[in-house]
């Protein structure tokens, strides 16, 4: 069992450490989602179709998701500061490689390395939150880090669209590399929170993680996140293709600008964390899923810029509201020394669902277009709601501690 760690700050306190964690996570996540708004630019630069350009996001996000399984258990054994800095430096180097190459195959490899390395940052920082959160404020701190990750998604889509329009794809990628290195420097302000007693690293660590995934009390919250992200990221990913079509026919810069509207919902996450304490995690999570369903409905029928903006705002808000509540449900069911692994595994299931949606919904898009894609996504979110409500039957929050 790990020894209790000290607060990973120098003089800024828990809020200062949380601010650094949120900012570094935001930029790391933005690097993973940087391709989503620039499929057209990628296609033009490398001479591939826009459908093939979509593979850049699929590969990067799959590598990002799989890295959570590899790195998650390590977040309970090693310093959050060390994991984050290593990840940021490797991600920056891979981003530079993507900026200078003229080969689409090399670009895809660089995107994969970038995604895997970037995962080290949220893995480390999600493990850090329950260590530094004051008593009874874990939900709020989870809300803050979730907000930063979803802001990163929005910033990646919007920022890269705008940067590519003004600097070109190579210039935008170079700027992203500088930002990642700057976050590595900022992470040095965190105290090295290495634990005093470490378990031996081996296959048993990952076997324990697999047992946690299939634990009856954790399977339902994990399934809730998986289905939510399949519907949410499936909708957002293919919205880029939808906005290239009539009646919109937007370029990458316009799509990136529209994505900024999602930032208005950022306060939903910390507010959700507070509401969990008042109304319970189940009620808050159900409310979040209802908002996501409403958002997809708005986007299905949207034919104007304001309608698209409203839909994006609502879909991000719904995810912001739901995720902190689900994280709290998971944290209540695992021992403190396993919360880093549990958080990483949950993020793995969520992000893996988003990557799967990007790949699986491709044939649906080809056959049934936007209507077919959103129909599947609505079905996924509705199933998530059913699974979440069934999770209310769980009576023993600590039943999975030994998983």
From TrEMBL:
<keyword id="KW-0472">Membrane</keyword>
<feature type="transmembrane region" description="Helical">
    <location>
        <begin position="279"/>
        <end position="302"/>
    </location>
</feature>
<dbReference type="InterPro" id="IPR036259">
    <property type="entry name" value="MFS_trans_sf"/>
</dbReference>
<feature type="transmembrane region" description="Helical">
    <location>
        <begin position="343"/>
        <end position="362"/>
    </location>
</feature>
<keyword id="KW-0813">Transport</keyword>
<feature type="transmembrane region" description="Helical">
    <location>
        <begin position="368"/>
        <end position="389"/>
    </location>
</feature>
<dbReference type="InterPro" id="IPR011701">
    <property type="entry name" value="MFS"/>
</dbReference>
<feature type="transmembrane region" description="Helical">
    <location>
        <begin position="218"/>
        <end position="241"/>
    </location>
</feature>
<keyword id="KW-0812">Transmembrane</keyword>
<dbReference type="Pfam" id="PF07690">
    <property type="entry name" value="MFS_1"/>
</dbReference>
<feature type="transmembrane region" description="Helical">
    <location>
        <begin position="83"/>
        <end position="100"/>
    </location>
</feature>
<feature type="domain" description="Major facilitator superfamily (MFS) profile">
    <location>
        <begin position="14"/>
        <end position="398"/>
    </location>
</feature>
<keyword id="KW-1133">Transmembrane helix</keyword>
<feature type="transmembrane region" description="Helical">
    <location>
        <begin position="53"/>
        <end position="71"/>
    </location>
</feature>
<feature type="transmembrane region" description="Helical">
    <location>
        <begin position="169"/>
        <end position="190"/>
    </location>
</feature>
<comment type="similarity">
    <text>Belongs to the major facilitator superfamily.</text>
</comment>
<feature type="transmembrane region" description="Helical">
    <location>
        <begin position="106"/>
        <end position="129"/>
    </location>
</feature>
<feature type="transmembrane region" description="Helical">
    <location>
        <begin position="308"/>
        <end position="331"/>
    </location>
</feature>
<feature type="transmembrane region" description="Helical">
    <location>
        <begin position="12"/>
        <end position="33"/>
    </location>
</feature>
<feature type="transmembrane region" description="Helical">
    <location>
        <begin position="141"/>
        <end position="163"/>
    </location>
</feature>
<protein>
    <submittedName>
        <fullName>MFS transporter</fullName>
    </submittedName>
</protein>
<keyword id="KW-1003">Cell membrane</keyword>
<feature type="transmembrane region" description="Helical">
    <location>
        <begin position="253"/>
        <end position="272"/>
    </location>
</feature>
<dbReference type="InterPro" id="IPR020846">
    <property type="entry name" value="MFS_dom"/>
</dbReference>
């Amino acid at each position: 069992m790990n020894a209790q760690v000290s607060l990973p700050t120098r003089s800024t306190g828990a809020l200062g450490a949380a601010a650094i964690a949120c900012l570094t996570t935001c930029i790391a996540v933005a690097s993973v989602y940087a391709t989503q708004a620039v499929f057209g630019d990628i296609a033009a630069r490398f001479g591939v179709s826009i459908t093939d350009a979509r593979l850049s996001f699929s590969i990067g996000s799959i590598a990002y998701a799989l890295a959570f399984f590899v790195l998650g258990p390590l977040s309970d054994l090693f310093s959050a500061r060390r994991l984050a800095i290593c990840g940021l430096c490797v991600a920056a180097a891979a981003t530079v490689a993507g900026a200078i190459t003229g080969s689409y195959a090399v670009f895809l490899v660089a995107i994969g390395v970038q995604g895997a390395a970037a995962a080290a940052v949220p893995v480390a920082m999600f493990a850090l939150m329950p260590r530094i959160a004051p008593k009874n404020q874990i939900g709020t701190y989870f809300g803050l880090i979730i907000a930063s990750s979803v802001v990163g998604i929005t910033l990646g889509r919007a920022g890269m669209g705008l940067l590519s329009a003004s600097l070109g794809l190579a210039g935008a990628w170079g700027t992203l590399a500088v930002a990642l290195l700057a976050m590595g420097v900022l992470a040095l302000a965190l105290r090295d929170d290495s634990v005093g007693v470490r378990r031996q690293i081996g296959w048993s660590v990952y076997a324990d993680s697999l047992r946690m995934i299939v634990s009856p009390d954790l399977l339902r919250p994990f399934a809730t996140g998986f289905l939510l992200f399949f519907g949410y990221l499936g909708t957002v990913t293919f919205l880029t293709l939808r906005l290239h079509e009539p009646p919109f026919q937007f370029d990458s810069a316009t799509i990136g600008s529209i994505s900024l509207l999602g930032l208005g919902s950022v306060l939903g996450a910390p507010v959700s964390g507070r509401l969990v304490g008042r109304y319970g995690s189940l009620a808050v999570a159900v409310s979040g899923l209802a908002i996501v369903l409403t958002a997809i409905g708005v986007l299905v029928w949207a034919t104007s810029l304001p309608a698209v903006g409203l839909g994006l705002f609502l879909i991000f808000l719904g995810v912001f509201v739901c995720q902190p509540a689900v994280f709290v449900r998971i944290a209540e069911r695992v021992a403190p020394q396993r919360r880093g692994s549990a958080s990483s595994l949950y993020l793995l299931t969520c992000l893996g669902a988003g990557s799967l949606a990007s790949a699986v919904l491709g044939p649906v898009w080809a056959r049934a277009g936007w209507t077919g894609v959103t129909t599947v996504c609505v079905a996924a979110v509705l199933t998530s709601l059913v699974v979440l409500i069934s999770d209310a039957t769980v009576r023993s929050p600590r039943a999975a501690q030994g998983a």
